[in-house]
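go over whats below:
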Amino acid sequence: MTQTLLIIDDDARLSDMVATYLQQSGFVCHQAPTGEAGLDMLATLKPDAVVLDLMLPGMDGLEVCRRLRSMAAPLSQTPIVMLTAKGDPMDRVVGLELGADDYVSKPFEPRELLARLRAVLRRQAPVVLDAEPEALVFGSLRIEPDTRVVRVGEQAVDLTSYQFDLLLAMAQRAGRVLSRDQIMELVRGRELEAFDRSIDVHIGRIRQAIELDTKQPKRILTVRGVGYVFAKQQD
């Protein structure tokens, strides 16, 4: 099935190059030169994913990301791959905190962007199974793999597709200490980049959504010097 992408980037030369490359790989690409134009196109276009430049004139990429995530579902769940300046990890951290699913640092190889896009789209795709997978229940926390819904009590919580997969992978291995490398391998299928701490940002976002007290987390515990463990026994 053909998938539609929206590229929001004011660099017309780069945007055209990326669009040409991705179209050769089977995508239908639409382009917007500003954040405002991109947001206007979202409602009618309903893209399968968004490639979003951080440094945009006027409304920057972070604000576009924030506004997209505040829209009504299913638009709010649209995967976002953010383009960031090379060597500026803070931009990546802030972008992930606002809900971006992944990032590519400029300058980049188009095939790397293609790989990241395919990865986030695979995570977004519904899984067809012969039988619906059983929900995972830990105290008041309920994770539903079939509907990709997470609830604390009766309240559904808001997670990106990547964060849901991360939480599910850890919950399926409850009680097992996992390193950052192991967690990233489980949900992304690629080795961690050197000094990559994006996993910590995602864990922080998940904790904000599911923990009763983020200052004293009881569901996802930090194992200093090693990684994280998802607690088997929870309230």
Notes: Helices lie at 12-24, 35-45, 61-69, 89-97, 110-124, 161-171, 180-188, 198-210.
